[in-house]
Prior knowledge:
Layout: H1 2-33, H2 40-53, H3 58-79, H4 84-107, H5 118-139
Helix pairs in contact: 1-2, 1-3, 1-5, 3-4, 4-5
Amino acid sequence: MIKTIGAFLVAVICTYILGVLFIGQGNLANVAEMGLTIKFSDRVDTLLHDVTHMTAIYLPLVTISSLIAFPVAARIFRLKPDLRLIGYVAAGFVALIAMHVIMKMVLGLTGIAPTRTLFGLFAQGAAGAAGGYLFHRLTEKKVAHS
């Protein structure tokens, strides 16, 4: 149980950091399209700022969406254990995309500007997929080979 909780926290932090990275870089790409020059230091500063300042809103959303997705996936694996890897990756992917789509449908707004594009939305899904993969790897049982 402790291992699972630890793996969950690591997966959520991974998803959060990647998601924030994709959000910030997506925003900077929009700024660059307006003709402004974006230096590498601007990209690093944006990442550091976003990682430390999006914890109050974005981190809880990532946590809740993962908290729904991973147990649902785990129940499926009881029937089909061979799907564990693809299942957790898919669960993380769908969780992050669903989070943004649900916010849009319920609130009528896109809280994260880069998710207005299909690429930006899929980048968020990729962050979730990475978290799902990490959760799978951290919780898989090691099989001894003879």
